[in-house]
Amino acid sequence: MQTHQALDDISGGLHSLRLDPPDCLPFNPSGERDWLRATFNDVPRYLFRVFTPKSRGRTDQTWTRSMDATNGIPNARLDIFARDNEGEVADMLNRHLRWWKGDEDNLVSWTSSLLFALVYIFHLHANTTHGSELKDISLCVVDTTFFPTGVFLRDLDLIRAFRASDEFLDDFGDLQLKNRGGIEDKCKLVSAQAMIDRGLYDLQPRFKEFAAWPKAWRPPWANPVLELRKEFNRELGDACEVSLKEQLAAMNIADLFGGRWALPLAANAFALRPRRCWNERILATFRSCRFTGSFSS
After folding, report:
1. In terms of domains, do 49 and 187 share one?
2. Range of the structural domain that residue 243 is part of
3. Are residues 182 and 246 in the same domain?
4. Inside any domain, residue 249
5. How far apart are CA 153 and CA 120, in angstroms?
6. Beta bridge partners of 110
7. Is there a single domain that holds both residue 59 and residue 150?
8. Which stretches make up the DUF7587 domain (predicted)?
């Protein structure tokens, strides 16, 4: 009788067991690509993603999902290194990096460059296909140390891994790739309009010009980023001073993100233009009580 009762209890427990999908789908290279594991630690701590409701994948306060994961395609739960057809994986990677549409895309792009992400906001705003209002375009920041190892992988490392399977794979810039993952409590989302209202144009005046770009099928993006980065080739003595307006803008934008995000966002905001390392206004900002205790390792 006790044995039957125990079996009934086990059966009941199995019926009530619910297997949820994992929070993340890490990259799991093996065999001849096992060398990629050594690159997991090369991913920067803070990554940025710009998205809108019209983006092909889905990002919100809880999840970021690839196009395939959003559409419920079975392969979305399969690590790309576990797939049999390497040519198809290389083709998907090539299309993703070139922003070409296709039947499958199980990757999500991130960037370690706030400048790159912010210029993309204005690219989306001016895009005739996308054409989103600034209030509908959001910037997401994640702390990669909150995720399991292997969730993020640098694009150049993936390109090296699959270059032999696709002759068109090449250097595509500063993107970090993943497919899907739970980001609740590991991220912060803020709208582009909110950052503008808090003084984004004071930190980089060229952004106001970018916001007025005429609508186009392929608005500028990479070239303006390269142009702005030329400022960093100046001599150290030509580094930009920090005005009071810039200091307040950096602090106010950082406050939008708040908590543990405030300090790294303030640092990235100041870094939109070349600065002197020991600028007193920057140091005063970081010493401010508004940032005390807001950063955790």
Report:
1. yes
2. 234-297
3. no
4. yes
5. 21
6. 176
7. yes
8. 43-166
C-alpha separations of 29 from 18, 35, 160 in Å: 29, 8, 13
β-bridge partners, 139: 50, 190
Residue 10 is predicted with a pLDDT of: 36
β partners of residue 181: 24, 64
**Average confidence score pLDDT of the chain:** 86
Confidence label for 18 from pLDDT (cuts 50, 70 and 90): very low
Which tens digit of pLDDT belongs to each residue from 228-264?
999 988 766 667 899 999 999 999 999 999 999 999 9
The alpha carbon of residue 52 and the mean position of all alpha carbons in its chain are separated, in whole angstroms, by: 13
**59-88 residue pLDDT tens:** 988 889 999 999 999 889 999 999 999 999
- State yes or no: pLDDT of 296 exceeds 60: no
At 1, is the pLDDT very low, low, confident or very high (cuts 50, 70, 90)? very low
* Cα–Cα dist 227/285, whole Å: 28
Report the pLDDT value the prediction gives residue 9, as an integer from 0 to 100: 44
Q: Is 94 left (phi over 0), alpha (psi -120 to 50) or beta?
A: alpha
User: First-to-last CA distance in the chain?
Assistant: 56
Tokens of 250: 């950096």
Per DSSP, helices labelled H in the chain are 2-16, 67-70, 86-97, 114-126, 155-162, 192-197, 200-203, 206-210, 222-229, 244-257, 262-270, 280-287
Please state, in angstroms and as integers, the Cα–Cα distance from residue 170 to each residue in 29, 40, 101, 130, 175, following that order.
20, 20, 18, 26, 13
CA neighbor of 189 nearest in space, from 38, 15, 62, 9: 62
